[in-house]
Amino acid sequence: MPVANSNLIQPPVITSPASTGMRWGWLLTAMGLAGLGVLYLFNPVEHAFYPACQFYQLTHLHCPGCGGLRALHQLTHGNFAAAFHSNPLLIVSIPWLAWLWISRLQNRSSNALVIQPAAAWTIFAIVVGFGILRNLPFAAFAWMSP
Ligand SMILES: [Zn+2]
């Protein structure tokens, strides 16, 4: 017996009033900039108050995010090569992430957090692939490790 469409469970769409969404967007932007300020002032290599990577603590393997704080610290000081060495995926993703964030802040008409499944799977594959490659014991992939 076929199931009627009304019985299917639909994924939730996250919405909010435009002003609330914009307020949260600017608040998160301010928090991100404050975080960059902390990273500028306090080098993660020299200060222990930064959280350690739990994946690395458990496995001694680098997760896709390992080196991200060090990369952002170097980037805030204009050291692009050192930033790239710490986490190349994060550094090459920053222009795209910034464009995504700014376009989200500017798009006042759409409040839904929408990502196409193909894009989500592509991003997931890139992040997981990067996480695997940076742990392989080959010289060709050594540049990916922090
Ligand atoms: Zn990690």
Write up what this structure looks like.
With 146 residues, this protein is mainly alpha-helical. The protein has one domain. 56% of the residues lie in helices and 0% in strands. The protein contains six helices and no strands. α4 packs across α5. It is globular and about 50 Å long. The mean pLDDT is 87. It binds zinc ion. Zinc ion (ZN) binds next to α2. Zinc ion binds next to α2.
Termini separation (Å)?
56 Å
Ligands bound here? zinc ion
Low-confidence stretches: none
The profile of the biggest β sheet is:
none
Question: Which structural class do you get from the secondary structure elements?
Answer: mainly alpha
DSSP summary: helix tally:
6
What sequence of helices (H) and strands (E) makes up the elements?
HHHHHH
What is the quaternary state of this protein? single chain
Total number of domains: 1
Q: In percent, how much strand structure appears in the residues? A: under 5%
Number of strands: 0
Overall body shape: globular
Mean pLDDT: 87
Portion of residues in helices? 55-70%
Question: Could you name the key traits of this structure?
Answer:
146 residues, binds zinc ion, mainly alpha, 0% strand
In short:
Helices cover 56% and strands 0% of the residues.
What topology emerges from the helices and strands here?
Elements: H1 18-41, H2 54-59, H3 68-76, H4 80-86, H5 88-106, H6 117-133
Helix pairs in contact: 1-3, 3-4, 4-5
The structure holds zinc ion (ZN).
